[in-house]
Amino acid sequence: MGEDSPRVGGFSAGLAVLLNGEDSNKKSPKTRLLSCCDDLGQQSVERTLEYVFGLPNRSLNSLTGPVDCKFIRSVIKNDFLKYNVKLSDSYGERDGICFNSKTGNGHDVIGLEETSICGDIKVIKSPFLIESSAMFSSARASACVWKGKWMYEVMLETSGIQQLGWATLSCPFTDHKGVGDANDSYAYDGRRVSKWNKDAETYGQSWVVGDIIGCCIDLNRDEIIFYRNGNSLGVAFQGIRKMGPGFGYYPAVSLSQGERCELNFGARPFKYPIEGYLPLQAPPSKSYLVTQLLQCWSRLLDMHSVERAEHSLVQKLRRVKRFVSLEEIFHPASYAICEELFSILEADVGITEYMVWGPLLSFMFEVFGLHAPHDYPSLDKVVEVLLQFQGSHVLFEHILNALSCGCKIASLILTECPYSGSYSHLALACHLLRREELMMLWWKSPDFEFLFEGFLSQKTPNKQDLDSMIPTVWWPGSCEDASYEGNMMLTTTALSESISKIEEKHRDLCRLVIQFIPPTNPPQLPGAVFRTFLQSLLLKNRGAERNIPPPGVSSNSVLVSIYTVVLHFLSEGFALGDICGWLKSCKADVGFLHRGGEQSFPVHLFLKNDPHRADISRLGGSYGHLSKLHPTIDHEMEMIQWDEGCMDSEETRVTHSTREKPCCCSSYDSDFTRNFKVPAKYLAKGSRGHCSSIPERPAHVAAECSDGSLNDEITDKPSSSDQSEPEYGYRQVHHMKSVPKDTNMSTATLREEELLDALLWLYHVGLAPNFKQASYYMTHQAQSISLLEETDKQIRERAYSEQLKHLKETRNEYREEVIDCVRHCAW
């Protein structure tokens, strides 16, 4: 019978659940019979509340008054806390650690020891996002350990030379020596894939931006181990020297110039906690209590969702007046839970960050869902209740911080596609920021631009990540299993779908920022905030194209993400009508790049001597050289106008919604298949495969061209890419003229012409280096395939055993190189 009954929360209806207060081998060994509320609508209000708050069956007496917030608070104070307050967190024996500082509440707090800093280390963002402004900077933390098993985490904001690990007070820090350069000093450097203890040895994996490095020390076994994103890199050091109380090992880091990382000693929950290792900073003792409170709220939300789905049945059962409506319980219970939550946080403000990054964020993801379809109504109810409290803004500031950080460190996992990577964090952030109150809170934050860049970040995989993301590899002429081709196609398609989902959320977020109008005087137009962010991004990344970029530049993934967003807006339009009604009066939201009729462009955008563009080379030389040859003062106020004739026809217009796709979004799958079928062309064309979708001229445009037109001259010339010119397409520009620029246009308006100008700069700084890297891998792949084929030929021709053995070893090396290149090219 139990199998036939409905199930809520995983329990069978009609059964009580025999549970311990916590783990059976820890905490309270006393078992108790918990109330179960599976038959929704068929339980009294007492039994329902017992289920929601995890209380023993029939522990609540019959009600004599209304079910209001005051009554629910009494249940929490008198019953819930009685069964949960003693089940406080136990983090094991914390003997063996010494702290140099405490807070006003008596908590042991770990920071950087100011007197230990050598070089110039700046705190970019509290608490411990640091950057080196000197050529080489080092610092120790303000706590040391001499026995037990301890760890801390480092989140990489950059992926250059950093030495992370442990050091004693006897290890000197200088302009050239840091962590790992002395006897009792041990470090890991993922840029050079080495471990350091006076001398360097090969160790670990190469690291990338967004990696979480776990630095673990086991003083029971006298060894040090490093972890990358929760995966062990193996024992790095054994037999390290034992220390005594107060003379132990300190967490320590050394950074080269411009390198950034964020240290977490335990002030936030670890992203990848390692079993058996304790955080240097103990988690708040109320963590378990807050988690249980939020679990009560989660059960209440689950029951409320089920009641909505079974509304008619519930109403029938309530006619006998024995059962209470969950709608009547939901609001007072939710409010009472939040009251208790905020009272805990207000009693010790130092624990707020930990509680939000840990229990509260996990609860919100549980309610919202990690993938579509998301439970928007339930999340809205949670947000509405939280916003009624005075301290809610602090909570949501931490939530936005945590979501932005989550985008930086989220990896694409093949088995989770298409809702993998940063998708869930972006989806939750976008839904929260649809509320004007929360968008205002974000905009007023001093970290607005920093968090915006975090949301636009995407984690780049290293070699080991690509191995797991693309497990099977195939290339033309390979001797691999025939099924590998299909498997690789399925894999790349799944990964592409995940990236498309993430890019869609990037666009949603940017649309929300574009439509947001801040309460400033004088009032601003929609798009002003996004325009300001874009200008700041360009200025921040001055010199990013240099071989050694200056400190503080943005991650490449941020530049690529904003490039794809702007390109989509210019190609397809902003599509803001469904969000805020802006531009709703437009006949059609046709993208700037696909608009026909009379067009114009301000010349001065390309002629400005902006600081972030001055170093970029142009056709003909540097800006300074060109400005001397071609003075631009007389033309700064001019607008060039022309007729874009070939874009007038609906049949020939190329957009994302038409059969022919624009070059910015050509189908990867079709290109991938076609290129593999013709490997010679694939290798010759390089990265040109995304420029093949612009159609031929329409007939009415062709008729306007003279017999001796430029197009005829081009058609007679051979193509350098083994492709006919009509595939590149033709756009007729006629009736060109110059007119004075409209001086009445607000300088704060988001203009599509400026977006195009920014797009070209983003391509130069963000995408061009990636294309160079892709070109390298494609060239190296072609060379490795040739060497592999030549080796296979020699193996078939040689019969001598010694030589054959050597050839087979060489072949394996070439094969691994080919596989590595194919994975990088596919990515």
From TrEMBL:
What CDD domains does UniProt report for this protein, alphabetically?
SPRY_RNF123
Any idea which UniProt keywords this protein has? Metal-binding, Zinc, Zinc-finger
Domain (B30.2/SPRY) spans 77-270
Please give the Gene Ontology molecular function terms for this protein: ubiquitin protein ligase activity; zinc ion binding
Q: Per its UniProt record, what Gene3D superfamilies does this chain match?
A: 2.60.120.920
Q: Name one GO biological process term.
A: proteolysis involved in protein catabolic process
Its cellular-component GO annotations read:
cytoplasm
List the InterPro entries hit by this protein, alphabetically. Answer: B30.2/SPRY, B30.2/SPRY_sf, ConA-like_dom_sf, RKP_N, RNF123/RKP/RSPRY1, SPRY_dom, SPRY_RNF123
Q: What segment(s) does the record annotate as region Disordered?
A: 705-730
Alphabetical list of PANTHER family matching this protein: E3 UBIQUITIN-PROTEIN LIGASE RNF123 (PTHR13363:SF5), RING FINGER AND SRY DOMAIN-CONTAINING (PTHR13363)
Q: Name it.
A: E3 ubiquitin-protein ligase RNF123 family
Q: Which organism is it from?
A: Cajanus cajan (Pigeon pea)
**Source species taxonomy:** Eukaryota, Viridiplantae, Streptophyta, Embryophyta, Tracheophyta
